[in-house]
């Protein structure tokens, strides 16, 4: 199962990066840490699969991706938690992105989603704990506990 998940994860990330235009903002980050994530706080990604480039800035361990180029973005994200049911969601400038909530009701198993939406220049994107209580990240096979992949698919007209 571990090998299948990693192969699928790698293929998805590679495909998203290949589809993006060369000048498009993009990056992919993950964590294997078993961190406790408090309500409304971001998940801290401490490793990168693809370094941020062209319109995206991220400092490892912060949980805040700064959008330098506004436009239409596809964001894939997921998390695994090892206790009570948790909910994660994307947030722009601390506000939950409508339709982005995912419910981690399967203990130690990755729950993921992909969503496409508009992000404006200067906004801060995070994957946050949208639950009322804290949860601890954790996958049963000690692989990736949370990830986010950001790919710009269209630049704002006024950004050209």
**DSSP strand count:** 13
CATH fold node name: Jelly Rolls
Rg, nearest Å: 15 Å
- Note the overall shape: globular
Largest sheet: 6 strands, antiparallel
CATH class group: Mainly Beta
Low-confidence stretches: 17-22
What percent of residues are in strands?
35-45%
The count of domains is: 1
SS-based structural class? Answer: mainly beta
**Average pLDDT, to the nearest integer?**
84
Order of helices and strands: HEEEEEEEEEEEEE
Examine the secondary-structure arrangement and name the CATH architecture.
Sandwich
N- to C-terminal distance: 44 Å
Helix content: 10-25%
Number of helices: 1
Structure description:
The chain is mainly beta and 160 residues long. It has a single domain, classed as Sandwich (Jelly Rolls), CATH 2.60.120. It is built from 1 helix and 13 strands, in the order αβββββββββββββ. The strands form 3 sheets. Strands 4, 5, 7, 8, 9 and 11 form a 6-stranded antiparallel β-sheet that branches. Strands 3-1-13-6-10 form a 5-stranded antiparallel β-sheet, covered by helices on one side. A two-stranded antiparallel ribbon has the order 2-12. β4 and β5 (65-67) form a beta hairpin. The longest helix is centred in the first third of the chain and has 18 residues, at 2-19. It is globular. It starts with a helix and ends in a 5-residue tail after the last strand. The model is unreliable at 17-22 (pLDDT under 50).
């Amino acid at each position: 199962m571990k090998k299948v998940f990693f192969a699928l994860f790698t293929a998805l990330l590679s495909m998203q990066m290949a589809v993006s235009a060369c000048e498009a903002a993009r990056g992919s980050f993950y964590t294997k840490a078993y961190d406790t994530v408090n309500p409304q706080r971001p998940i801290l990604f401490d490793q990168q699969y693809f370094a941020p480039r062209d319109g995206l800035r991220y400092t490892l361990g912060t949980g805040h991706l700064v959008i330098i180029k506004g436009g239409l973005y596809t964001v894939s994200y997921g998390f695994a938690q090892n206790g009570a049911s948790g909910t994660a969601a994307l947030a722009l400038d601390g506000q939950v992105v409508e339709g982005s909530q995912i419910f981690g009701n399967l203990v130690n198993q990755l729950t993921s989603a992909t969503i496409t939406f508009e992000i404006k220049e200067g906004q801060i994107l995070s994957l946050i704990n949208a639950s009322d209580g804290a949860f601890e990240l954790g996958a049963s096979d000690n692989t990736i506990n949370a990830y986010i992949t950001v790919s710009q698919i269209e630049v704002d007209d006024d950004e050209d």
